[in-house]
Amino acid sequence: MSYAAFKMMHWPTGIENCASGFITHSISGVVPSITSDDLELEWSATKRKEIGPIPNLIITAGNVLEVYIVRVHADDSGSGSNNKGGLNYKLPPEAKKGGSMDGISSAWLELVCHYKLNANVETMAVLSMSGNDVSKRRDSIVLAFKDAKISVLEFDDSTHGLRTSSMHCFEGPEWNYLKRGRESFAKGPVVKVDPQGRCGAVLVYGLQMIILKASQAGYGLVGDDEANGSGGTISARIESSYVVNLRDLDMKHVNDFTFVHGYIEPVMNLPHDAYKLLAVPSPIGGVLVISANSLHYHSQSVSCALALNNYAVSVDSSQEMPKSSFNVELDAANVTWLLHDVAMLSTKTGELLLLTLVYDGRVVHRLELSKSRASVLTSDVITIGNSFIFLGSRLGDSMLVQYACGAGSSIVNSGYVKEEVGDIESDTPSAKRMRRASSDALQDIISGEELSLYSSAPNNSESAQKTFSFSVRDSLLNIGPLKDFSYGFRVNADPNATGIAKQSNYELVCCSGHGKNGALCVLQQSIRPELITEVELSGCRGIWTVYHKNVRGHNKDDSSKMGSEDEEYHAYLIISLESRTMVLETADHLGEGGKRRVIQVYARGARILDGSYMTQDLSFGTQNSESSASESSTVISVSIADPYVLLRMSDGSIQLLVGDPSSCTVSIISIPPVFDSSKESISACTLYHDKGPEPWPIKTSTDAWLSTGIDEAIDGADGYAKLIRVTYTVLSATKVASLIFLMCLGLTVCFSVDKFVSGKTHLADALVQDASNDSQDTNSKKTEEVAGQIKKESNQNMKIVELAMQRWAGQHTRPFLFGMLSDGTMLCYHAYFYEAQETTSKIEEAVSVHNSVDLSNSSTSRLRNLRFVRVPLEMFTREESSVASPCQRITMFKNVGGYQGLFLSGYRPTWFMVCRERLRVHPQLCDGSIVAFTVLHNVNCNHGLIYVTSQGFLKICQLPSVLNYDNYWPVQKIPLKATPHQVTYFAEKSLYPLIVSVPVVKPLNQVLSSLVDQDAGQQMEHDNLTSDELHTTYTTEEFEVRILEPEKSGGPWQTRARISMQNSENALTVRMVTLFNTTTKENETLLAIGTAYVQGEDVAARGRILLFSLGRNTDNSQDLVSEVYSKELKGAISALAPLQGHLLIASGPKVTLHDWTGSELNAVAFYDAPPLHVVSLNIVKNFILVGDIHKSIYFLSWKEQGAQLTLLAKDFGNLDCFSTEFLIDGSTLSLVVSDEQKNVQIFYYAPKTSESWKGSKLLPRAEFHIGAHVTKFLRLQMRPTSSDRTNGTSGSDKTNRFALLFGTLDGSVGCIAPLDELTFRRLQTLQKKLVDAVPHIGGLNPRSFRQFHTNGKAHRPGPENMVDCELLCHYEMLPFEDQLEIAHQIGTTRGQILTNLNDLSLGTSFL
Q1: What average pLDDT does range 1042-1047 have in this prediction?
Q2: Cα(1223)–Cα(1229) distance, rounded to whole angstroms?
Q3: Which residue numbers delimit the RSE1/DDB1/CPSF1 first beta-propeller domain (predicted)?
Q4: From CA 745, how far away is CA 710, in angstroms rounded?
Q5: How many whole angstroms from its chain centre is CA 729?
């Protein structure tokens, strides 16, 4: 193997930066649909705190940038009659119902857009608009990247995404003088912006300040005409940038800087440990200086300070500093303003502190600090508007918290608040928290803590403290930092599974989080539903469940409670077999519902059933007298949207049935002439029924035609209610593959798109397109000539085989549009609203020109403001649809286990779950191919599902409720309340031994007395400490090894045993090892633990090796673990590995091999290397790979004859290793190492080549920048793929191929997989093309991102033998024509490229 592919499988989740600003909407133009008018009325009517316009939340995690909108739901209680206006919408699953605070009962985050950037974001700020009329203007996002790159992004309404408004780069030869000869800098660039939006500043290269001058409204690097296009709103823009050298101003080093109001040139003396500045908002003004041991406030007229602990030193040492009422250290704290005089600090231990500035006019008298709650360990905090804060975290889940100040903010629902009184935590998965009753919640109360958090200042009467109450409204899951992981068997694994289904037997158990946010994350890439029952059933074609409501005793005007439809039980299960149809009754108890008829469609007709009685029978085929072929046409596919039924016939025509609610009968509507005139046959069609408080497409046309919506009896039958029920027909014709929307009843074309098949990034109505994009025609002619014949051939067979459009529950949801192409590609679009100003007149001209049959006078009813943006499907693997007879593969579901979305059946069944308006794609591989799927909700199976496998089994299941599916992979988080360090898996008993450490506070004299020097054997001197200092406390970490067992029912995991370490002893490594017992001549599987005593630098390092046997007696947990051996060695024991029945131990600077006699370890061989500290040991056969913390890697071999460890080769460079592993490709062995600069290198051993210095030097094979610290590699055998079987390649070469799964500190998981040379060359050429063909957000170059980062050290560039699948996956997102064009340019075909990418996905689907 000389070639490899890098592939991300789970993107970073640890949030490093967060900011808030009006990105997608301005302060005045509240987002279209952020709240309805009724809610605004309701808020202003009551005397509550006014919740102002809420800005967006922007977060970054590694190289991922996400923009969210905060959605709020007001109390239902106070709304009275306002609620009739269709506001009875269902809340999305992420909106956790909680207590009411300030008139809000729930709030949640909804994703607007997300991007993967070609660089890691170092810092981020939001540039707000300057000038007078700020209300119409929007903010921009300023991102800074290493070393000195700055991108400014703004939201573009026309594409519903971010666009780059300016880029500023101060790198490269012409800017080298800024570095003044230095190559590495302690900190990356830091961005701050002026609160009035006049400029931004970026500190780079230590002491160079880049000033970004903001343009005045309407001027800037982008022309005016563009600004007007986006609905008259203008985003803040940068006009120019220049550099100020701070050395010229006599500065030596800068820790932090900020913009302060109204200063001329202040200079202040600060303590040495000051590290953060915070500008105090007006009307007070001034600056707050945060240091580790004290807080200082300075303004031009006054300054005051507050000592936080005994180490605080007054700057001018003359005056005494006032002391805080409790001791705290504020190094590494994050801070944000709640009010203009109250700041909230989040400390390194996860406590929230409130700092109040006691002031009079503009003079601050003193600072007061009080304790609030405990919360997550934050990496950044930000205030969103005047009611929310966001706590971003790399170490735990990030949280959206609502806060309210003062007595006025009473909280209504007491049960919820009791649940949240303790810490602001969100460890329980959302599904569980929703189910938890208030009685359970009482256990969460922390004793004696009051709801309104008063300060602990003694004189409460005079204290100026305000009281705050907090409520967690939403949380974003984080699985980082992944320190270690283990690959184990799932609890519900199927031992008989074969092929691809076998993969879903495994799961990844990861050590993640830190301190009280420490947790075990159980990751499963594919979903395995919990089986309730299964039946053998062969020859099944489809399954459906239907509701049925008896008319007797049913009152049509019953205003039944909200969500009744959701809770209604299914009445019948209908199973379509090859020869007959079975109908099974599923529930004896039915809820309320208005479904009074069931329609059953078969090949030549339809039946209307009332329960099990047929009330009407229709037959097709004689209606359309004009077409002679219609006699033989049969129904191929059906789409139902009450009261319409749409049929697609085998001759390519369509028929529409409409139900009459009064007589409960169905009649056939004549099909409009639009389609008779076009002789196109229709390849796919669907009905879309817009439900919801705000009918979506109505907003996208401004005309009055909508009053022809179906008139249904709804409460409050005013115009608004009628408009809700508008049904569209979505049709798609085959030849030009255009997409057409029709209004039902009138059946006029209201939206059409040409060449839907090509998968353009944005769709707009063809008329709008024609009018605005005249230039496109000339381009397309050119490309057609280039590719000529190829295109025509490949265009013939591409058609849409299935269409679906759905809008899921929730007030602010937007419809999704799905199209399945005949080659297995899934197109997914998300609708959005964009009002183009200047196109209207052009459209009317265009219409008069086009005056053809289907477009006559139709400009009035066009959905001209409806647009669609294509959504990338991250985890989706296409499958070639080889089946000749098309079957419907898309099934929508509204509630399966609390989630909504769609299920795609087929060879690789996949769930698409809609969480926060974002599609989460999770495959389901456990049963192989699935032919039919439907939802089932009844007494025995609550919100479950039924599916039929291709082997002929019907299974009734539920989704596992312990998993959270709102993540890249489904995850179960098991809180440990301790820091996990390393985990290993014992397969025989399926146990997970795990190293954890818990911080323990001890008196200082106790800590000192335990630090005894073994050699001298005497107590250490501490005469220089006073008695007071001896009684102060000190925090130490206490280590233990816990043996955890997964719970069979999927509940919380059980701790079966604990192995405690001694005083000041740290467990460094835990491994299950199989050793050959030389006495009994048998293999034994033991648990091996390596430890080190941490006793300061005066004491020589020692460690222990411990061996335990597991599971002789499973009943009694005391006897589960028994110690069989323990010995103290010199040096810290940092790594262990079994080697052909021996035990290899890395202790200090020595690697030793031991024999096991059953009671004793005897050293048989050693290698005295210069390693300083071994971080990893890997073994293949008799080869050993040693990774050192500072000295790169060593390649050793073990010879049984002569019992010796010999060094074969090493890397002579200096490299700070994080993790190592062998990569195996057939008979080739490579050595992979990750380092502290976030790179990965692959080396190989070639003793015969001259440059390897007679074999003593390892040669580089590939190098690559991953952009995250890789902490663990796991070698897993790759799965055989379809092309391997068809090519008939020699079996051994393909099967003996292993990829490396890796985990990183920012919560991402990826893999490095070997490639054969032909595939590599093809994909590398494609990669070079895509660098230019794909627009990169922020103007960042993927090639420079993936280059080896050296941080200024000398490094000889190695070969670029790794392809970047992060860039290659953009290929599938390109329009079809561009895909063909690029494939043609690099001399291959589109099919070949897609097969290569698909094989890589299939070969590495390990979970």
Answers
A1: 92
A2: 6
A3: 269-403
A4: 8
A5: 34
pLDDT score for 3: 94
DSSP 1173-1202: SEEEEEEETTEEEEEESSB-EEEEEEETTT
Cα–Cα distances in angstroms (integers) from residue 275 to residues 290, 306, 472, 755, 777, in the given order: 6, 16, 30, 58, 58
| Half-sphere exposure for 584 (CA within 13 Å, toward CB) | 9
- pLDDT score of 882 more than 70: no
Q: Count of CB atoms within 10 A of residue 1225's CB?
A: 22
Buried b or exposed e, range 147-165, using 16+ CB within 10 angstroms: bbbbbbbbbbbbbbbbbbb
Q: Is the pLDDT of residue 1023 over 70?
A: no
Cross-strand partners of 1054: 1045
CB 774 within 8 A of CB 686: no
Q: Which residues contact 853 (CB under 8 A, 6 or more apart)?
A: 673, 674, 677
Q: Is the peptide bond before 960 cis (omega within 30 degrees of 0)?
A: no
pLDDT at 993: 96
Task: Give the CA distances from residue 686 to residues 800, 819, 890, in Å, rounded to whole numbers and listed in that order.
Answer: 12, 10, 11
Pairing of strands 294-298, 484-489: unpaired
Position 10: which residue type? H
pTM for the complete prediction?
0.89
Average pLDDT, the chain: 79
Distance CA 1211, CA 1178 (A): 16
Residues 888, 894, 895, 901, CA torsion sign: positive
What is the H or E stretch that residue 1204 is in?
strand 1204-1210
Distant-in-sequence, close-in-space partners of 1011: CB < 8 Å, separation ≥ 6: 1020, 1064, 1095, 1096, 1099
* pLDDT reported for residue 839: 47
Bigger pLDDT: 571 vs 796: 571
Instruction: Say what the pLDDT of residue 201 is.
Output: 96
Write the pLDDT tens digit of every residue in 415-440.
333 333 345 654 443 333 333 322 23
Tell me the chain's radius of gyration from C-alpha atoms. Answer: 34
- In this structure, the number of other CB atoms found within 10 A of the CB of residue 893 comes to 21
The token duo for 888 is 């419907």
State the Cα–Cα distance between residues 709 and 717, nearest whole angstrom: 12
Instruction: Determine which of 287-296, 411-420, 962-971, 1022-1031 has the lowest per-residue pLDDT on average.
Output: 411-420
Which stretches of 205-347 are assigned E, i.e. beta strand?
208-214, 238-245, 274-279, 287-291, 294-298, 303-307, 334-339, 342-346
Enumerate the H helices of 788-838 as residue ranges: 789-796
pLDDT of 587 strictly over 60: no
Cα separation, 1210 vs 1404, in Å, equals 30
Crossing angle for the helix pair 1390-1403 and 1376-1385, to the nearest 10 degrees: 100
Beta-carbon contacts of 849 under 8 Å, excluding residues fewer than 6 positions away, are none
Q: Comparing 688 with 672, which gets the higher pLDDT? A: 688
Is 467:454 a contact under the CB 8 Å cutoff? yes
Output the DSSP codes for 286-326.
Answer: -EEEEESSEEEEE-SS-EEEEE-STT---SSSSSPPPB-SS
Determine phi and psi for 436, rounding to 5 degrees.
-70, 130
What are the tens digits of pLDDT across the range 89-131? 567 777 766 678 888 888 999 999 999 999 999 999 999 876 6
Bridge partners of residue 123, in order along the sequence: 144
Tens of pLDDT along 711-745?
Answer: 222 222 222 222 233 456 666 655 455 777 766 55
Give the ranges where 638-788 is alpha helix by DSSP (H): 673-677, 696-699, 719-724, 766-772, 776-787
Distances (CA, A) of 748 to 719, 742, 855: 21, 5, 9
Retrieve residue 926's tokens. Answer: 């456990």
